[in-house]
Amino acid sequence: MTTTEMTSEAGYQDLNRLLALMTGDEKHGPAATSTLDALWVLYDRVLRVSPGTVDAPGRDRFLLSKGHGPMAYYAVLAAKGFLAEEALSGFGSYDSPLGHHPDRTLIPGVEIGSGSLGHGLPLAVGSVHGLRAQGLTGPRVWVLIGDAELDEGSNHEALAYAGPAGLDQLHTLVIDNASATYGWPGGIASRFEAAGWSAETVDGRDHEALYAAFTAPHAGRPRAVVARVEPKS
Q1: Cross-strand partners of 172
Q2: What pLDDT digit, counting tens, does each position of 49-80 carry?
């Protein structure tokens, strides 16, 4: 079975088993597991995309900017049928499509090749403008970034622009595992609010809190959800 063949869906209870199929010396385990619950809620209950609609113009777009720990992403994609479960055991090997950074040309449903910190949010801003240029105002763009990425100037510029521009198709999920060098007075959400975003901080392991934050109305403003998880050790 190849990565392009659909598989039957698995559930949240299967994710640890799927993660265990991926082995190697450069797993970035904490970077991956910090995203697991938020990714699951997005793909299970929020994102309007499926293995059959990965090329549909009206699909939601999900951009993994925090791409240096992609195992949870791969596990969720496998659970949702975007790639074959059997592909997970080859993670990081020479001939595997599942690299240490995701590759959009090799994995169905992956929107960007990622791993270099700080470029996902600017790409998401551009994606919203690209959709609007095509008259597509329904699809939502989601981008997942890590709190340490907010140290990057490119992300500061993107979030400072998106609020005043009223990019309400844009949604940013920040995984906060206390790994940022500088932090932000008043918390990460206040940084987005100061730039004109709708923003909320939730427990990154609480599925119902995540879902409520992901689906809260934010007319005329981009939305940021800060998901706090256990600090990176």
Answers
A1: 143, 224
A2: 999 999 999 999 999 998 887 999 999 999 99
Q: Which of 113, 112, 74 is nearest to 92 (CA)?
A: 74
Question: Distance between CA 11 and CA 50 in Å, rounded?
Answer: 15
Residue 144 belongs to what H/E stretch? strand 141-146
Give the other-Cβ count within 10 Å of 133's Cβ.
Answer: 8
Question: How many CB atoms neighbour CB 168 within 10 A?
Answer: 19
Residue (of 196, 156, 192, 157) closest to 173 by Cα position:
192
Amino acid identity of 204?
G
Quick check: pTM over 0.90? Answer: yes
Q: What would the pLDDT profile of 104-144 be if each residue is shown by its tens digit?
A: 999 999 999 987 788 999 999 999 999 999 999 999 999 99
Cα–Cα distance between 204 and 216 in angstroms, integer? 16
- The 3-class secondary structure across 88-128, one letter per residue, is HHHCCCCCCCCCCCCCCCCCCCCCCCCCCCCCHHHHHHHHH
Phi-psi domain of 60 (left: phi exceeds 0; alpha: psi -120 through 50; beta: other):
beta
Compute φ and ψ for 40, nearest 5 degrees.
-60, -45
The SS3 assignment for 207 reads helix
How many Å apart are CA 34 and CA 53, to the nearest integer? 27
Residue 178 in tokens: 């206390």
